[in-house]
Amino acid sequence: MGMGGVGKTTLAQLVYNDDRLNGIAVSISAQKVNVKIEDVTKVAKIMSFIPAHPLNVLSDNDALSLLAQHSLGTKIFDIRPDLREIGKSTVIRCKNLPLAVKSLRELLHTKASPKEWNDVLNSKIWIAENTSEIHPVLKLMA
């Protein structure tokens, strides 16, 4: 369990596709069926002997590494130290959510200069940052 974009669906897909488990993964989206997360947790506890495990956002270093991996093709900014600080500011704007960081791939992958990265960082995509339940960067995927 965790907030949107933290990786619940990705984790469920990995578990479901793991041949060693030969089991069934069940996904419940509180957004789509209009239930409270507390109700889902109560059901999960009743249906399983394994306690629910909350997923959290990435650490600053992991979020920055994910950004580098998806935008530069490497896990560190050593090949582009001129983009490191802009990258740090970008993952902060993404609130270290893996899905938000990954969704910037298409925007940053083709950008080569610090100016272009700053343009993305200062773009209008961030305007609804504090007024919506959905992170603004995730709206790019819609």
TrEMBL record:
InterPro entries: Apaf_helical (IPR042197), P-loop_NTPase (IPR027417). It comes from Forsythia ovata. Keywords: Leucine-rich repeat, Plant defense. This is Disease resistance protein RGA1. One of its GO terms (biological process) is defense response.
